[in-house]
Design brief:
The protein has nine helices and ten strands. By secondary structure, the chain is of the alpha+beta class. The mean pLDDT is 91.
């Protein structure tokens, strides 16, 4: 959505929080207000204010206020992402959820997405800015990944600017030789058996949620964890599976004597729950 809005001239990544007149419950310093919109979507704002929808892990490892200047330090920061949503709505005068429906879900023919699958998560006792929560089915996530695999085009129509796809999925912040972060995408380089490096990028979430795009393999790998019931696969196993798919697609050598295993489905315990009984209650007109 940011790429679309920037292409339409509605958002300037160099605008600062001070330019936009934004603050929070615990007043931001002049240094913090120098953070640009680009710093937010790179998770490099240097603003370590409590945020909505933070995990305990992030809450317990958050750097101290004023410990880093804007742009100089990467830390996965829900405050940055939440404020990016606030700014998007401010600059486009449109709900981020409605924008997603009109500009992404409908053009891609998403089958399951509806506005009832979105909500603002407010935590007003700690911050003025909400988190923006989505639920997407596996096949609709796959469409989103396929859109990026096709460089922002769908049925020959430009949905997302190609230059935005390229930049946002690259390693703008480099953690190691094979791992980095772009504009809200994780960027990786997977080595094959011949030592060749293949770029993949991924959107990652709780319960091991994954949308992984493999350009060299011309493939999209999606995993949809059941976060409502706490049922999810092990993240390491999912990455191993993704690596095997990439290896098969890029022509790596097959195992000489592969071990074949019968596949069986194990239903979740709640698949056939006991019927619930409710007392009838009379309601007045």
């Amino acid at each position: 959505l940011y790429g679309i809005a920037i292409d339409a001239g509605k958002i300037d990544l160099d605008e600062t929080i001070a330019d936009l007149g934004i603050d929070d419950i615990s007043t931001l310093s002049d240094t913090e207000k120098r953070a640009r919109i680009e710093d937010l979507i790179m998770s490099r704002s240097g603003i370590y204010h409590p945020a909505a929808k933070e995990t305990d892990g992030h809450r317990n490892t958050r750097p101290g206020r004023g410990s880093h200047s804007p742009g100089e330090h990467w830390w996965y920061n829900n405050w940055d992402f939440n404020l990016a949503g606030v700014i998007y709505e401010m600059k486009t005068a449109e709900s981020i959820f409605l924008s997603f429906q009109r500009r992404i879900a409908e053009p891609l023919g998403m089958e399951d997405f509806g506005l009832e699958d979105t909500w603002y998560q407010w935590e007003r006792e700690i911050t003025e800015h909400p988190a923006y929560a989505f639920k997407l089915s596996a096949r609709d996530r796959a469409r989103f990944g396929q859109l990026f695999l096709q460089n922002g085009k769908w049925n020959d129509e430009k949905i997302v600017p190609e230059h935005w796809v390229e930049k946002s999925t690259s390693s703008l912040t480099q953690f190691s030789e094979d791992r980095g972060y772009g504009y809200m995408w994780w960027s990786y380089y997977l080595q094959d058996d011949d030592g060749e490096s293949h770029h993949v990028y991924a959107a990652l979430g709780g319960s091991s949620q994954i949308i992984m795009v493999m350009p060299d393999s011309e493939a999209v790998f999606v995993y949809c964890g059941d976060s409502d019931y706490g049922k999810t696969a092990d993240g390491a196993d999912l990455w191993k599976l993704a690596g095997m798919i990439s290896a098969a697609r890029t022509g790596q050598k097959a195992v000489e004597e592969p071990q074949l295993t019968d596949v069986s489905a194990i239903p979740y315990a709640y698949a056939n729950p006991e019927p619930k009984h409710y007392d009838e209650v009379e309601l007045s007109p």
